[in-house]
Each structure stands twice: as structure tokens, then as C-alpha cells.
């Protein structure tokens, strides 16, 4: 699916897309990858990156830590803890 990550299994699906358990190849840490439904708008990608930038400023046990945002084949992917 995404270069640098090995998908282990699907964790769930919903109205916005699917979430997969994956292993980051370099660090070997387990991550969740949320694959959003297809979007052809660059604005959606920019909005997602902006939101993650804001959320990343906080540390709280109820807030997911985002590691990366990627775009491939008109689909947005969030890599998170």
C-alpha cells in the first residue's frame, strides 16, 4: 500500500475510510494507518496536514499521536500511533 510500511491486518472500517495495523519498516514500530476514502482535492490533503500540525502540539492520553500524512493515488493516509 505505502512504501516503508508493511500492512499486517485491517483493524476496522467506517464512513471515512479504513484503518490498518502496519509495521514501519525502518523502525519496526507498530502503527495504525488510516486510509481515507478517495479525494481528488488537494485542499483536503492540505486541511488534513494543517489539522495534524495543530493536534501535534498537544500531549494527552486521549489524543492520538500522528506521525505522518501521505498522499498516494488520490487517497490520503494518516500514520499514527
Structure, explained:
The protein has 81 residues and is α+β, with helices and mostly antiparallel strands. It contains one helix and five strands; from the N terminus they run E-E-E-H-E-E. Strands 1-2-3-5-4 form a five-stranded antiparallel β-sheet, with helices on one face. The protein is globular and about 30 Å long. The two termini are 18 Å apart. The model has no long low-confidence stretch (mean pLDDT 86).
Helix content range of the residues, please? 10-25%
Main beta sheet strand tally, sense and closure = 5 strands, antiparallel
* Order of neighbouring strands in the sheet with most strands: 1-2-3-5-4
- Oligomer designation: single chain
Tell how many strands the DSSP assignment holds.
Answer: 5
Helical stretch tally = 1
Form type: globular
One letter per element, helices H and strands E, the order comes to EEEHEE
- The fraction of residues assigned to DSSP E strands is over 45%
Distance between the amino and carboxyl termini:
18 Å
Mean pLDDT: 86
* Class from secondary-structure proportions: alpha+beta
- Radius of gyration, CA atoms, in whole angstroms: 12 Å
Q: Unreliable stretches, pLDDT < 50, 5 or more residues?
A: none
